[in-house]
Structure formats: C-alpha cells, structure tokens
Amino acid sequence: MSLVGELSSSSTTGTGFFSSTSPLTSDSGINNNEKKKTDPYGQINFKFMIIFPLLLVVFFLLFFSFSPVYGGRQIVILVIGLLIGISLSQCKFGYTSSFRNLIAHRKGKNFRALITMFAMTMWILSIIISASPNHKSWTDKTKELHLSAAPVSWTVFFGSFIFGIGMQIGSACASGCLHEVGSGIVRTLIVFIFFIVGTFIAALDWSFNVWFKAKSEGRINLIEKWGIAGGTIFQTFVFLVLVIITIAIEIKKHGLVEEKIIQRLLMKLFPKLRAIARNKSNSIESKSLLLNHTKNAKKEVVKNIFTKKHDIYVGSILLTIAQIFLYLSTSNFWGVMGVFPFLIALPLRAMNVDVEKMKYFQEYSTLPTHFFANDYIVLDLSIILGAFLSATVTGTFGKGNYRPNWKVYGSAIIAGLLLGFGSRWAYGCNVGAWTSPSIAASVSGYVWFAGGLLGNIVGVICRPYVGLKN
Questions:
Q1: Is residue 65 part of a domain?
Q2: Position 1 in a domain
Q3: In which element (H, E) is residue 80 found?
Q4: Which of 321, 435, 415 is nearest to 91 (CA)?
Q5: Is residue 3 in a domain?
Q6: Count of domains in the chain?
Q7: Which of 1, 92, 254, 422 falls 20 to 30 Å from 196 in CA-CA distance?
Q8: For 348-360, what is each residue's pLDDT tens digit?
Q9: pTM score, two decimals?
Q10: Tens digits of per-residue pLDDT, 139-198?
Q11: CB atoms within 10 A of CB 51
Q12: Where is this protein found (predicted)?
C-alpha cells in the first residue's frame, strides 16, 4: 500500500522533502524541473477518469437508499474506508515508496511511519482487549483469521517476493492501487485490473492446490504462545530494532534523519553526530534536506487541514484510528485483496458459470451472495471513494499521469499479474499478510517481510528497465 511512492498525484502539491523542488518528488522518480526535457511522464488530466469515481458515488447512494437491510454495519465500514482513503491520499502514506526510499535513497522516514502505525495499533488493541474480557481475544481470532495468521510456508515467502517486485514495477501495492485509482491515475487502474485478474487465476484449482496445501509449520502466533503481554512486548522490541536499523542506514548515508525530533534526540545522545551531520550537509541533497526541515516547521503551522498534504506521521495516527474502529466494529483486522477474486467470480456466477465448484470457494473463502454482502468489498470501494474526495479537494485528481508509452503501460499489466499471483500465494498483500500479522504478533508477518523486502530490492533494480526512475 504512497502511498508516497504510490501517490503520483502528491508530486505536484507535496511539501517538504517530497515537494516539487525535491529530486525525489514523485513516485516515478521524475524531477519536475526535467519533465519538459524528458516529457514521457508529462502530467495529463484524463477527463474520462472522472466518470469512474462519480459512478462509484452514485452506486453507493443508490445502495444505501434502497438496501436498508445492509444499513448500520456497512455504513460504519463505509466511514472507516473513507478515513483510510483520505489518510492514504492526504498524508502521502505508502508502502511502495517506503521500501523504495529506504532501498534506493537510504531514507527511512516513510518506513518508520509504517512501523509507528504497527506499534500504535498493536498497543492500543492490546490494552482494549485486555480490559474487555467479553471481547474475543487475539488467541481466538488468530485461530480463525487468515488475515492475522497465515501458515508459515515457503509459498508465503515466494508469494511476497513476487509481490514485492510487482509493487515497484507497478508503483503501487494493494492499498496503493485503491487510492491511486480514486486519485485518477490511469496506469494504476491498469495495474489494479490485472491485479484482480491475477488473484482470480491464482485462486483456480491448479494454483490453489499448490499454495493452500503446501507443507507448512502451521499458524504460529506469539500472543497465543506467550499471552498478550509477552507477544506485544516482543513485537515492540522487533519494531524498535527495525527503526534503529533504518536510522543507522540513513545517518550513514546522509548524516542526519528527516524527523527533527529524532535528529535532536540522537545529537543529545551521541554528540559526535553533530560533526557528521555538519560534514554531510555539504552535499546538495543533505542541504536540501536541512532546508526543508525549516520550511516544513513553518508551513505546518499555516497548512489548511483539508486542502493541503500532511506529514506522513499524521497518516500513521489516522490509519491507527481506522484499524482500531475496524477491529472493534467487525472483529476483523484490515485486509485489502482477499476479496479481489470475488470481483470476477460474482459476475461469472451471474452469467451462470458455476464458480462455486472451485476449491478456493469451498475450502478457503465462501463466495458472498452479492458485492455489498462482504465487508471488505465495501471497505475497498469506500477507500477508493475517500481517495477521490481527497484528490478532488486538494486539486490533484488526474495529476501525475504518464503520457502513453508502451513500456510504461505494458509493465503495468505485468506488475498487476505479479501483485495478484504474489498476494494470493502469500495469503495476502502488504496489508493483510504483513501489517495485520505484525499487529497480531503472527510469525507469518516476518516471513512475508523477508520475502517482500527482497522482492522490493529486485523491483527497484528493475524499474529503469520499464521506463520508471527511482
């Protein structure tokens, strides 16, 4: 799930280091000052893209007007999805860019924002569940939910590896596809369509028999083994280690980190870093970073809360709130792509194709009666709608599109299929198979992260060969 790397639209309105003055401003890695020279990525407003979100709005209005049977629960999910979509778009929050900035540029702010969201969500839910004896504990949930505890198998690693490559080639993950489609990015719409196709193909019997029945160590959950306190504390330690590693990588490369509060703390704890930062700041990139620290501090005071982009850590807080309300209202963790096979299976069933004979729908996931009978379909559609509202208010809808280019758009098809196959084989995408298991202290999250990180490294290397820059 820009997410900054997935938020092509953010390139024109972002502030600070990811503003239009930065050489790392957009997801495609294109310097705005060079666009007129290179020009294959010139921004175009594809007006026909407006039709899609408008139809989505009408669809929602008609549904809630004439289908009161799905009223309360679905309305709550709709509101949560809107919050997620707005947060992803408004705060430039993304998984793809987090990996790419860390791998290609040795900058870890975005990645640390992800880990911060994991930790906040985990701790708040731990406290709530511990204080609510009548609420289903994570021990029970992790036995039931594929989202929070996938089997520890080679297919999870292999699938996440493929998915990681697809993330970078497609400049989007699952959640990134949702919010970029809502933001009017045409290339991501292509990625999204073939993402859905890929998940359905991977759910067919020939593929299902491989990933679902692969030899595994079972569903290992640390909270189930050590209790809520033990699992939560251990996960916190792991999160802290990841944060320290990203800080060390960034300081080694740039002499300082992007977050002012962390930088000040480090300089107090390690005075020698002052000299390192001073020497590193002689480079153009570090000077730009230091300058933008000052600019950000001034601009944050006067930012309009609705019409301007906000810091990625604001997104961490908002997404934490959304995930907590999602769990409390549905007893489910956040997931995105698990319903993608339904988006093909339901129309096929309407055409009298007996898709319910597929082992996937018999042994893994029951096909709903119709689209709005499934919570996650409503959630995904409302995320798209939330991103559309955000892009419309900020004036970024349709911006950040690529000019027609067979290499750029052809690679979108490949990326979508990689995302589809990879996510289904890994029991989920970066949200359902990494974020949620990490929050629930499931070992499968570690396996997904290992494969996903390696895949993202390969994907970053591949980007220039498909017409994308880092």
A1: yes
A2: no
A3: helix 71-90
A4: 321
A5: no
A6: 1
A7: 92
A8: 998 999 998 999 9
A9: 0.79
A10: 444 444 333 567 888 999 999 999 999 999 999 999 999 999 988 888 899 999 999 999
A11: 9
A12: Cell inner membrane
